[in-house]
Amino acid sequence: MFYWLMKYVAIGPLVKAIFRPWVTGQDNVPATGAAILASNHLSFADSIFLPLLLDRPMSFLAKSDYFTGRGIRGWATRVFMKGTGQIPIDRSGGKASEASLNTGLQILGRGDLLGIYPEGTRSPDGRLYRGRTGIARMALEAKVPVIPVVMVDTDTAMPIGKRVPNVMRVGAVIGEPLDFSRYAGMENDRYILRAVTDEIMIALQRLGAQQYDDVYASTVKDRLPSASAR
């Protein structure tokens, strides 16, 4: 109910009226059943606009920092994230990664849509970076299709470090579902997981024509002189 109120009453109509977001390929999202939406990640705003553009509710796996802020701003961010279907995850690796995987599998097990950023973090410079293999493992274990999604101009509307967005049109291009059923039962093979992940990233690159760099975005961020891009 809270998600419905946020999307259709409290926030959604206002955001749509101001930014007039557009979407193409919405028919590629199944009307029922579980699926993973694999999106490029240009801006914090990606997690706001994509759910608003879909007819079905969806959940994103979001870093837990968004849910632990203090004061009024922290409270507002926490309420907003929960209201828009965000699920807090710990991205520190190890057991935390396993817990994140299990959370995603629970969402898919309910027959819902799950949004994932395969790059693992926002792009620091608008390029598309190497994908993390967690998405491949989820897709193979849950036996669900992966739908590539390219967000457009969200980095211009809300650049990294900017708190107040620029008012402009943003959009999303949704590609055809990718079927990985040929790899059934191979979710523990790291070579297969890498191959599936790379196929997803190739689909994203072709859909959005972003420049691709075969390194992890987190590695690029670690080289930056300032941590403001995180």
UniProtKB/TrEMBL annotation:
InterPro entries in the cross-refs: Plipid/glycerol_acylTrfase
Gene Ontology MF annotations: acyltransferase activity
One Pfam entry name: Acyltransferase
Keywords from the UniProt entry: Acyltransferase, Transferase
Keyword Isomerase recorded: no
UniProt entry tagged with the keyword Cell membrane: no
Organism: Microbacterium bandirmense
PANTHER family to which the protein is assigned, alphabetical: 1-ACYL-SN-GLYCEROL-3-PHOSPHATE ACYLTRANSFERASE (PTHR10434:SF11)
Domain Phospholipid/glycerol acyltransferase: 35-154
SMART domains noted in UniProt: PlsC
Name of the protein described by the UniProt record: Lysophospholipid acyltransferase family protein
Coiled coil ranges: none
